Amino acid sequence: MTYFQCDYASGAHPKIIKNLVATNEVNTLGYGNDRYCKSAAQKIKKACDTPNANVHFLVGGTQTNSTVIYSILRPHQGVISADSGHIAVHETGAIEAKGHKVLTLPSVDGKITAKQISDCFDMHKNDPVRFHTVQPGMVYISFPTETGTLYTKKELEELSQICKDLNLPLFVDGARLGYGLMSKECDITLQDLAKLCDIFYIGGTKCGALFGEAVVITNDTLKKDFKYIMKQCGALLAKGRMLGVQFDTLFTDNLYFEICKSAVDYAVRIKKAFEEKGVNALANSQTNQQFFALSDEYLEILSKKYLFEVYGKTKDNLNYIRVCTSWASKKEDVDELIKDIKSL
Amino acid sequence: MTYFQCDYASGAHPKIIKNLVATNEVNTLGYGNDRYCKSAAQKIKKACDTPNANVHFLVGGTQTNSTVIYSILRPHQGVISADSGHIAVHETGAIEAKGHKVLTLPSVDGKITAKQISDCFDMHKNDPVRFHTVQPGMVYISFPTETGTLYTKKELEELSQICKDLNLPLFVDGARLGYGLMSKECDITLQDLAKLCDIFYIGGTKCGALFGEAVVITNDTLKKDFKYIMKQCGALLAKGRMLGVQFDTLFTDNLYFEICKSAVDYAVRIKKAFEEKGVNALANSQTNQQFFALSDEYLEILSKKYLFEVYGKTKDNLNYIRVCTSWASKKEDVDELIKDIKSL
Amino acid sequence: MTYFQCDYASGAHPKIIKNLVATNEVNTLGYGNDRYCKSAAQKIKKACDTPNANVHFLVGGTQTNSTVIYSILRPHQGVISADSGHIAVHETGAIEAKGHKVLTLPSVDGKITAKQISDCFDMHKNDPVRFHTVQPGMVYISFPTETGTLYTKKELEELSQICKDLNLPLFVDGARLGYGLMSKECDITLQDLAKLCDIFYIGGTKCGALFGEAVVITNDTLKKDFKYIMKQCGALLAKGRMLGVQFDTLFTDNLYFEICKSAVDYAVRIKKAFEEKGVNALANSQTNQQFFALSDEYLEILSKKYLFEVYGKTKDNLNYIRVCTSWASKKEDVDELIKDIKSL
Amino acid sequence: MTYFQCDYASGAHPKIIKNLVATNEVNTLGYGNDRYCKSAAQKIKKACDTPNANVHFLVGGTQTNSTVIYSILRPHQGVISADSGHIAVHETGAIEAKGHKVLTLPSVDGKITAKQISDCFDMHKNDPVRFHTVQPGMVYISFPTETGTLYTKKELEELSQICKDLNLPLFVDGARLGYGLMSKECDITLQDLAKLCDIFYIGGTKCGALFGEAVVITNDTLKKDFKYIMKQCGALLAKGRMLGVQFDTLFTDNLYFEICKSAVDYAVRIKKAFEEKGVNALANSQTNQQFFALSDEYLEILSKKYLFEVYGKTKDNLNYIRVCTSWASKKEDVDELIKDIKSL
């Protein structure tokens, strides 16, 4: 069975494994106070061109989202998000569990606009009894989004500007950041992203690591005491060096980006193959996750060899599936899938 | 200036004031362990025909909603509500602040249906990775709703049945319960309501009292240790007898219902007057709150003598206003308003 | 039965009742936006000599403590308190329920010292892995304390200074403030208190009102958006005017202080009578609450006419009781109690 | 520099590394639904002789403690713990951040007794206003404790019995469980432990793994929906197989216990050497953590070659240090340290 079901189905990139093995017997201090974390943080700051940023390493995406948001908001504030945002739908209420409402805005292609944020803020501000409603306190977006789409540089600049104007920290969930930045349709760089938001993270779990997300805090006002909150949230790994070694490897010789690139190329090829076969893509994805409406017949045939994520039925009674490539996807497997799609 | 702005603009019904004055110098134990609370609870249980219910007296609506919901849900559960529900929009995130997501369903006339609850439950249950999403743990409805509408007996029976089937406690926010039950279009009784839900409250703040909401718990499994949670939530009044005296008065000689009845009649008359004048009602309200789209001209004229709640503009650029009567509204004021509407 | 059991056993001072009755039919806006709240706030600011303070009216003590502390702390911070502090023992974990640890310090006579705070702060600061422990974020004291004692002006100045030095907001729980300030042994004024802390409240529930606590915020950085947090905490009364009328009355013609004074005098007389009889006072109280170790025999005799709070047994197997006077205690009742004590 | 500073200074046991490498390219489902987790759970259930237990794999200790406790308690309940318990002092208020008070009892040798629990429970139960205080809802103990001591079988049976009698779930923090069970002075087995408590965890982070704690739930009433709460708490690893592979390795051929045994032996030898030199042990530890009061002179000499954890000064102005061995400690390093101690 070949997995195109998700991007966290295999272990880590061989170079990471190699370095974990090589450093396994080294003794270090715990909780991120080790040379590997320091080195990784340096390399990340350099790659982001943010020499004054703080870099912290956490374990997983839900943990990172909830820890970051919890560290920023005051009790009466909520976080603005697309209604399709991961924090709004797929984290078992982790944000609410820490006391905050997710203020959802209707999304198009998984994205929200500067205008929507501005309107949401104004509606609240102009409400004469606004203290009866949750105050917008920050903005969360995903890059790429949950449906694989990308904000353009212009869109991101507009979001960034309105957030600055309204004093709302902008937080970018980069769980699949590598796949976003490596998309041919992406017109921003890591440095652009770092400049345009206040805090973001570079996803490792889905982009070559065993696990790990690197939070980059560029806005000085958000830096204070972050490590306390990590610890309280159970997000401070005792053997932090595991995270250091992994990100140090990923940010050596551009590995993080190299390994994400092929996955996006593969995904786009698969999309093209399905579309040529008359299968509709269900999202305008430009990255490694592709969504399709597949007939029972097609699904049955392909499922003999391939594993996809099946979410349920569309209203046309087709199967709503995700085909997901990753840094670990092999060219020969992709070629074969495409051949099999053509033969449907 | 005559107030039609809200139903909490004046003090309490004279009989309540009389009894508060009469008992003012009596000494009692605190925290609800007094004869007045006991007597009021007895009368309420009798009125509800629920001899085994537990009755608790809290101070206000947001406090009651958040305390009740917090007492029922486990950490990973959320409360199903109409998207127009008070807990979803006007409580500054009080439910989220206590850790729970409000799972909103699109409402028609402020109401949700048994089918919607069933679908929401099934969608969650059938999700293969359902532990990534908030589990529906209870259902919240308002009676009357935030737009003044009422569930019919049939609708309520269906809601009740589905909630029983799915093991979801049904909680009814009765902040304006008196106005609901006294509507000519209401086909349920207090006893029906008590039988059809697991926990509900009888609103005092808006229905004749200075303040106070009487929570009635009929489902045995929800009774345990409720008073602890009240105390933790700052919802246990030291001089609980204030609540006891007020509800004891309201549930003597049917006072609660008598005084709510006129308010609803007045509101319906005002609605008729506006409609005859070609002013659109913005909700299908059958109770004491009526919502209209009023031109600037009309609003300006009427605002010289009357205070309404003005929420903002409709998309037709009319003024979205609420006209609200209460137990304290006077017939002569209503007559005059109607006369003035006719003269517009 | 004569009540000396607590200071919330009766209704409100007759002048408050009179004004509530007189204003009962007046219509006002809700949620504290009424003339009475405005007037009361003005009078309180004048009495405190803090023209720039913000004044908010809440309903009860636990509610006030938890709302204030929640509004100040960041997620990883805790509140320093005497181990005997109300928030540490008698609020069913209300502070923890809002996410914060109470950092208790051993108390003498219910009090903590500047030195203790300094040491606690330093111990945390000097801990190389301090992010594994809760960061002290503010200081809570009660005035008078839970055992009826008082901080001297010198002690309070020292607390104030260390809190300023360490940037820890100082919050004073004044649930029984009137009884404290009116004690003969009290060497501070309301103005002193207002100057020496960052936020405090003037207790109404136990000092003449039906209910109500007036929060005074003098530190500008603590003022922002307090009303949102009140609403979220269920602490924003719809008919806020009830609180306004009560505090307006209490702060007219010095009523608040006048009515507390006699209660303290009575309590001190009772203490003297018990001590002359060889009954040990269990706390060094200078205010309206007095604590004694009473034999079964004495308790049995006195309990025929008087109600005390009985907490349990001391280790000498005596009855640990509280005798509590209030603004409502009558001279003749106190005289009779003293006579009966003498006759034991 | 030789590390005796903590038990999480190096990577994982070579067999774990070997298996992680061997399985690195295998594709599996995420979130614990993989063959390795299933196999590891089976082996753990067998080792515990609890065929009906539920086993879940989490990442770290603080995360595990807070997730477990949060999953068990109702809002008004707290967790009973020794005042020296990890949850009470070293988790940055993680328990409080999830809404619950830690009810600390004074400990002797890091332990609490059945009698203390019973007294604490009774004191609460017999309080006439008990709803003003936090209700004891469960009991937390560490095995071994934070100071390296062990409950005897008799002590544990008594704790277990009182917890059953009082209906308080007993939760055992086994972050260093291997070192406890392998102590020569330990008179209980893993099976005993599993039988005597309701939920416990087998620590991996400090006992041979890169990271990971295996929660074993034996009490049926605590099993429901645990995975939802893990997800919400950010404690559900996407590549759960990492945890599965590690615990599968640890519970193959008794590895977990084998590798912990030597560490305890080493620690006891070091303790003996220090004591023979007249250095006082600061705790009655029987496991891999040993605590000493070391003079500046001794510390300076030994610090040239060895790293210890230095906590600060004792009241005798000696250095309060921890010497910590682990599964990774080497015999030759221990021999050398002992030789150097003798030469002091």
Could you name the key traits of this structure?
homotetramer, 17% strand, 4-stranded antiparallel sheet, Aspartate Aminotransferase, domain 2, 344 residues, Aspartate Aminotransferase, domain 1, alpha/beta, 7-stranded mixed sheet
Short description:
Chain A has 344 residues and is of the alpha/beta class. Chain A has helices spanning 14-22, 35-48, 61-72, 86-89, 94-97, 114-126, 153-166, 177-181, 190-196, 226-232, 241-250, 255-276, 296-303, 331-342; strands at 2-3, 54-58, 77-82, 102-105, 135-142, 170-173, 199-203, 213-217, 280-281, 289-294, 306-307, 309-313, 319-324. Chain A starts with a strand and ends with a helix.
Question: Mind explaining what this structure looks like?
Answer:
The structure is a homotetramer of 344-residue chains. Chain A is of the alpha/beta class. The first copy, chain A, folds into two domains: 2-7 and 256-342, Alpha-Beta Complex (Aspartate Aminotransferase, domain 1), CATH 3.90.1150; 14-254, 3-Layer(aba) Sandwich (Aspartate Aminotransferase, domain 2). In chain A, 41% of the residues lie in helices and 17% in strands. Chain A is built from 14 helices and 13 strands. Chain A has helices at residues 14-22, 35-48, 61-72, 86-89, 94-97, 114-126, 153-166, 177-181, 190-196, 226-232, 241-250, 255-276, 296-303, 331-342; strands spanning 2-3, 54-58, 77-82, 102-105, 135-142, 170-173, 199-203, 213-217, 280-281, 289-294, 306-307, 309-313, 319-324. Chain A has a seven-stranded mixed β-sheet, with helices on both faces. The longest helix of chain A has 22 residues, at 255-276. The first copy, chain A, starts with a strand and ends with a helix. Chains in contact: A-B, A-C, A-D, B-C, B-D, C-D. At the A-D interface, β1, α1, α3 and α10 of A face β1, α1, α3 and α10 of D. Chains A, B, C, D: It comes from Campylobacter blaseri.
